[in-house]
């Protein structure tokens, strides 16, 4: 056993039972902009279900190559207007000039949006190599610096516990994260992962690289392994063999799949909590129930004020 494995085993033994969690965790939720009216209803019902948990913020993704520019804006602006949750807009610099980015960022500022999740993004054609727009930003670090010149946004950036697929190596990827934070980002949100040890190792390496900003784990509650495998292949996340074993034979049992999915993510969160994590970012895929169940197990309960307002 390596030191890391021993450390991980110790943390697992030390992990408090769900019943003993103090309820002091904070959460944020990520959504994608809906394409149809039906999807809009689903998203909105998810937002309303999760709002009473008083998330620190909710964020809305930006489609590849800026393809959802208007829809992302409309969704973020609606959340900002109609709920008490601070809304964060994802923004990428793929296929956009600096002027276009300025326009988008200024329209967010005018709409009262103060938080941007700043990303380089991926080319719209899957598998293509990123090439910066001739008048654009070449990386997320440059985008962060550009946004800071436009307005004093709060900025989150991406981090990769299992290393971004284009990075020369893990250290180069950490150096890049440090550049983004030094350029003015406030926190990092990680790509999804399934091994708590991968997160802890990354957090230790970040600390050794003098990164002291908050690193928030991105939690993907998985109920569809095939779909997750596709995402994982694109972003360099590992799907552990036990994941397949746990979902084996459940194709015709959707309810059991949901229970298994909640158990896996809740267990991951419990271990992370034991390792000191107090902010969890959920990739909700616009569905509330799994994330809600995991938050409940983490000890979160609807905020009394939010309940009164809803009534
Ligand atoms: P960067 O930080 O610029 O890094 C990209 C790669 O280039 C890395 O390998 C990095 O190590 C390397 N690199 C950068 N600068 C240098 C340099 N100077 N020298 C050497 N190497 C360098 N995508 C979307 O399209 N829309 C979204 O809404 C979206 N939301 C996301 C949210 C989160 C929390 C995460 C984790 C990812 C999200 N993504 C999204 C995916 C993201 O756009 C891709 O992972 C993309 O490939 C990299 O974006 P980045 O911001 O990490 O890029």
UniProtKB/TrEMBL annotation:
It comes from the Bacteria. Pathway: One-carbon metabolism; tetrahydrofolate interconversion; Amino-acid biosynthesis; L-methionine biosynthesis via de novo pathway. InterPro entries: FAD-linked_oxidoreductase-like, Mehydrof_redctse-like, MTHF_reductase_bac. GO terms for molecular function: methylenetetrahydrofolate reductase [NAD(P)H] activity. It holds the Pfam family MTHFR. The keyword Protease does not apply. CDD domains: MTHFR. Its cofactor is FAD. SUPFAM superfamilies: FAD-linked oxidoreductase. It catalyses: (6S)-5-methyl-5,6,7,8-tetrahydrofolate + NAD(+) = (6R)-5,10-methylene-5,6,7,8-tetrahydrofolate + NADH + H(+). It is an enzyme of class 1 (oxidoreductase). Keywords: Amino-acid biosynthesis, FAD, Flavoprotein, Methionine biosynthesis, NAD, Oxidoreductase. Its EC number is 1.5.1.54. Belongs to the methylenetetrahydrofolate reductase family. This is Methylenetetrahydrofolate reductase. The gene is metF.
């Amino acid at each position: 056993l390596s030191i890391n494995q021993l450390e991980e085993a110790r943390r697992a033994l030390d992990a408090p039972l769900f019943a003993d969690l103090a309820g002091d965790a904070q959460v944020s939720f990520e959504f994608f902009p809906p394409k149809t009216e039906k999807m809009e209803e689903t998203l909105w019902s998810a937002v309303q279900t999760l709002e009473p948990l008083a998330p620190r913020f909710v964020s809305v993704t930006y489609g590849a190559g800026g393809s959802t520019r208007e829809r992302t804006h409309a969704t973020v602006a609606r959340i900002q207007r109609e709920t008490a949750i601070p809304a964060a807009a994802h923004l990428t610099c793929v296929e956009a000039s600096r002027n276009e980015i300025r326009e988008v960022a200024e329209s967010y500022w005018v709409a009262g949006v103060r938080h941007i999740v700043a990303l380089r993004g991926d080319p719209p054609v899957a598998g293509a190599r990123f090439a910066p727009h001739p008048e654009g930003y070449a990386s997320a670090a440059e985008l962060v610096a550009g946004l800071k010149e436009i307005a004093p946004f709060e900025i989150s950036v991406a981090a990769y516990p299992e290393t971004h697929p284009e990075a020369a190596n893990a250290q180069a990827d950490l150096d890049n994260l440090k550049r983004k934070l030094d350029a003015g980002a406030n926190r990092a949100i990680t790509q999804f992962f399934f091994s708590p040890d991968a997160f802890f190792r990354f957090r230790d390496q970040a600390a050794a690289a003098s990164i002291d900003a908050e690193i928030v784990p991105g939690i993907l509650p998985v109920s569809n392994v095939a779909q997750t495998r596709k995402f994982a292949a694109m972003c360099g996340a590992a799907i552990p063999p036990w994941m397949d074993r746990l979902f084996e034979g459940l194709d015709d049992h959707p309810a059991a799949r949901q229970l298994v999915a909640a158990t896996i993510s809740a267990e991951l969160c419990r271990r992370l909590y034991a390792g000191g994590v107090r902010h969890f970012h959920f990739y909700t895929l616009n569905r509330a129930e799994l994330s809600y169940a995991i938050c409940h197990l983490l000890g979160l309960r609807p905020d009394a004020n939010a309940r009164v307002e809803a009534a």
